[in-house]
Amino acid sequence: MTLIFSFVALLFAYALFSGRLERSVLTAPILFTAAGVALSEFASGLLHQPAGMQELVRAAFLRAAEVGLVMLLFTDASRTEFQVLKSIRDLPVRLLSAGMLLTILLGALVALAVFPSLTIWEAGILSAVLAPTDAGLGQIIVNSPRVPLRIRQALNVEAGLNDGLSVPFLLFFFALAAHGAGGGDASLTRFIVEQLIYGALVGGGIGLAGGWLLGWARRRDLMTETLEPLGVVALPLMCLVAAEAVDASMFIAAFAAGLTVQAGFKEAGKHSVEFAEEWGQLLNLSVFFLFGMLVARDWTLFDRWHWIYAGLSLTVVRILPVAISLIGTRLSRATILFMGWFGPRGLASIVLGLVYLEQETHLPGEMTIRLTVMATVFLSIFAHGLSALPGISLYANKIARLPAGAPEHAAATAKPPGGNQHCH
Length: 424
Known about the structure:
Layout: H1 2-16, H2 18-21, H3 28-38, H4 40-47, H5 51-78, H6 91-114, H7 120-129, H8 139-143, H9 149-180, H10 185-219, H11 228-245, H12 250-260, H13 268-276, H14 279-297, H15 304-314, H16 316-325, H17 333-341, H18 347-359, H19 366-400
Helix pairs in contact: 3-14, 4-14, 5-11, 5-12, 5-13, 5-14, 5-18, 6-7, 6-9, 6-15, 6-16, 7-9, 7-19, 9-10, 10-11, 10-12, 11-12, 11-13, 15-16, 15-19, 16-17, 17-19, 18-19
C-alpha cells in the first residue's frame, strides 16, 4: 500500500506543478522513472516475493504495459493524416522508410559487434525493439516555437508511426530466432501468419466495423457526445481481447484498427487524443514508474557493454541513418544533427523489450537483450530530457544565421498526426 500511495502522491504533485514542469527539463518520464528508482526499497518487497506473488506482480505490470502500448498504437494510427505520406520528398516519409530500415540494419550490426554471443536474429530483435522513437520524452522539442515547424512536424510524425511500423520487424525476427532455436518450417510460417496476418485482419475488421457503427450512431443521433470517446476507446481493447483469442499480435491489431476506423468515423482521432491525454497518460506514467523499479532491481546485472551499446544506439545508430535518409533535402548540418539526436527511446521500447519478450520463446540471448533495452531507455530518458532546452537554444542560434531561402524556413506542407503525445 505504501508503494501505491507514493505513486498516487507523486501523480498529484506532478499535476499541481505540471505547468511549471512542462517548461523545464524535468519531464514526466524523468520524474516517474527517478521516483521508481528511489522507491525501489519498497518495490523490493514486491519484486522479490515468493514465486506466486512475484508472478502476480509481473502479470500486473505486463497487462498495464500492454494496455498502454495498445492504446498508444491505436491513438497514433487514428490520428494519422495520409496526406503527410503522399510524397517521398516529405521528411517524415524519409525518416519512416530509409531512415527506419537503416536504423534496424545498423543497430543489428552494432549489436553483433558488441555482443558476439547474440545470433543475427537476436541482434535484429534488439535493434527492432530500440528502433521506435518517443516524442513524449522530448515533448519540449515538439512544442517549441523556436524549432522550425517543418522539423517539429517531421519528428512528431516519425514518433507517431514508427512504433507501429517496428512491430512487424520484431515479430519477424522473433519467428526466425525461435526457428533457429529448434522450431520447424511449419511453426515459423504459422507464427508469422498468426501474428502478422491474423493481427492485421482482426484489427482491420474491428476498426472498419467499429468505425462504421460509430458513424452510423452519430448520424442518427443515437450516441451522446460525452460517451463518444468511450466508444472509440473500446475498439483497441476489443483488439487486445480478440487478438489474444486467435494468438495474433495485439499491437498489430491495434495499429490496424486505428488506421481503418477513420473510414467510418473521422472523429476517432480526436476522441482517442482525449483518452491519451487523460487515462492513457496515467497508464504510461505507471509504466515509467515501474520501469524505474526494475532498473534499480537489476542494477548490479548491468556491465559496461550494455551501456556502450546504449550510447551507440542513441548516437551513431540513430544519427547516421537519419543523415543518409535526408540526403538531397539541403538541410543544414545543424538540423541533421538535431533531428538525429532527438530520437529518444521510451514507452514502446519498454513494452516490446521487457514485456513482449517475456511472452515469447525464451531465447539464449534474452537476458542480454532485456538489460540492453533497459540501459538504453534509461539513458535516453535522462539524456534527451536534460538536453532538450539547451539543445533548442543551440539549434535556434544556428538556424537564425541561415539564409532566408534555407529549407528550414520553408512552410510545413501538411498537418502532423499528433505523434506520441503521451507523458508530456
